[in-house]
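Final report, closing paragraph on structural work. Over the funding period we assembled a curated collection of sequence-structure pairs, and we close with a single example.
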Amino acid sequence: MMSEQVITYDVSPDDAGMRIDSFITKMADGLSRSYIQKLIMDGAVFVDGRSAKASFKVMPGQKVSYVLPEPEELLVEPENIPLDILYEDRDIIVINKSKDMVVHPAAGHTGGTLVNALLYHCREGLSGINGVLRPGIVHRIDKDTTGVLVVCKNDAAHRAIAEQLKVHSITRKYNALVTGVFPEHQGRVEAPIGRHPVDRKKMAVNYQNGKYAATHYTVLESFPCGCSHIECTLETGRTHQIRVHMASIGHPLLGDTVYGMGKNPFHLEGQALHARVLGFLLSSTGEYMEFEAPLPDYFTDLVNKLRKIGGRII
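Its predicted structure, as stored:
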């Protein structure tokens, strides 16, 4: 039986004036901001030993701590959903996620997710750090994004992967189909990402409240119809980072009606984005390993279609 854990961080001068929920989100990449806010509401977050409110702004020299409760009884049911497993050992399982699969349950939607499938496959062998609805989930990709995702079977592995995510040492390469043709072969987008100032369901380049974010891209192929196939390497890993960054420089992803033009000429179900490569250090051995998920059929079919279109359509 896992007991409660108390995690403590020292506030540095660089973090002066940050809201406490933002500070913990920055320090603990393995926890979602909504989960941290719930901890605050439950009175499980403290500054120098005193309970803190979500609006509290931290100052240098303070000690911020929070209590991770014992995992609650899981209400999400295991489901016998097939998984495309790329690798598995006693600590982790690496999945090639399909396009239509949601990673974790949400209120009112507790079935058909990757978590349901993992509960069936792994039984009770998943980490509990990220709460009862996200067992084993240390990072995520969007519902309509395909590709490599690592899931942790125990808390030690979870903390090890979360630390690598925090310091941005994990290798993450994505393939994307975007609108427009690039004048250069390679480039880098550096722009902070945060919540959209008006539409809180969206992310945006946000210079006032965003977090540092950087994306490297390489053009793999350009098409006469006005589209390009690119590889994106993440220097950081913010929510919707590639989608936001590419839209910000005038190259939104095909099929992305949230950050794109609102048009979907190829009738795609969501953005054309595939997490192809994921590389990190194994917590058990310290060995660096990379995992690669082949491009899905919908993606390669669309590439072939773009090659055949003669005139510009976008």
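The longest strand covers residues 214-223. Residues 252 and 260 are 5 Å apart (CA to CA). We thank the funder for supporting this effort.
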